[in-house]
């Protein structure tokens, strides 16, 4: 079996001929949504009479929820409600990509539509200017499930030379990474960096900083673009938190958090208060940080390979083996952001940002909220 898909080996010059045909004044708009798994994305495309200028120009649509694990066949229509529009890096201008919320027949949020709850929580703490930056790790696989460019009957050399590595024997799949990066920038997604990770064929990109709902929207669309780019190259982008057992790093979605108060002089005290609250609710967060209530992270958070143990909470300065890390520069200067290293690569960013805010802010005697969220120069790994 070939490690790349048959579709990727079709005649791309012929494909480009049709892609470049004029389309008049109409626009192709691709609606994207989260299915019933809570981690897989679906899409379908429609034609609009002219280029939409904003969300208000995009009609609601529907789909068969019985084919996406979201409804029974007898009552299968689900509503697609556009919430965020992006430029389309595949079909190009004037065509668009649209992130949608999913509503059930009664207009209530679908079970995996966690955006509604996230939005309400973020609105409650707007005055705190909570920022997030999310570091999305992923692993490139062949369609046969084997890590891309690994020996078919063995393993590459031990971890060590691959993190931020350069060279054909150290960086596996850089073309895919660079194409995804450019696609995100074209779409209007705030990707601030990318790098090769510790395990060969594993990479990371960072989205943010920004408010929780905004960053989560952008991360979901960045994931969609990643899967589409990989589709063109005939490989698979896996968000499995532990795709390869043994002495190989897993994949997380480290989440950086700050508030206006924590980003100001003396802000370290606000971070320490938030971290203490995170410690008290460690078990609850673990249940939210992957789509299977912690079962995925059980394979990843072992206390080895730059992870903390899933069974305990730790925090430290510059400690990548801790649950929560304060970067060394932040510790030295006394203000900035902290990094929650527990979320799995396949987490729902709406759920992650929401639970961090719920846990970490409180009301003081004047009734004002205090919390902590990411500084733009501190989003990377």
UniProtKB/TrEMBL annotation:
A Pfam family it matches:
Gln-synt_N
- SMART domains, from UniProt? Gln-synt_C
Q: Which InterPro entries match?
A: Gln_synt_N, Gln_synt_N_sf, Gln_synth/guanido_kin_cat_dom, Gln_synth_cat_dom, Gln_synth_gly_rich_site, Gln_synth_N_conserv_site, Glutamine_Synthetase
Q: Which Gene3D superfamilies match?
A: Glutamine synthetase, N-terminal domain, Glutamine synthetase/guanido kinase, catalytic domain
Start and end residues of each GS beta-grasp domain: 27-107
User: What's any one GO cellular component for it?
Assistant: cytoplasm
What subcellular compartments does it reside in? Cytoplasm
Chain coiled-coil ranges: none
EC class (word): ligase
Q: Which UniProt keywords apply?
A: ATP-binding, Cytoplasm, Ligase, Nucleotide-binding
SUPFAM superfamilies referenced in this protein's UniProt entry, alphabetically = Glutamine synthetase, N-terminal domain, Glutamine synthetase/guanido kinase
Q: What is its EC number?
A: 6.3.1.2
Question: Is Transmembrane helix among this UniProt entry's keywords?
Answer: no
- Reactions catalysed: L-glutamate + NH4(+) + ATP = L-glutamine + ADP + phosphate + H(+)
Residue intervals of the GS catalytic domain: 114-381
| UniProt keyword Kinase, yes or no | no
Question: Among the record's GO biological process terms, what is one?
Answer: glutamine biosynthetic process
Q: What GO terms are given for molecular function?
A: ATP binding; glutamine synthetase activity
Primary residence: cytoplasm
Assigned protein family: Belongs to the glutamine synthetase family.
This protein's name: Glutamine synthetase
State the organism named in the record: Paramormyrops kingsleyae
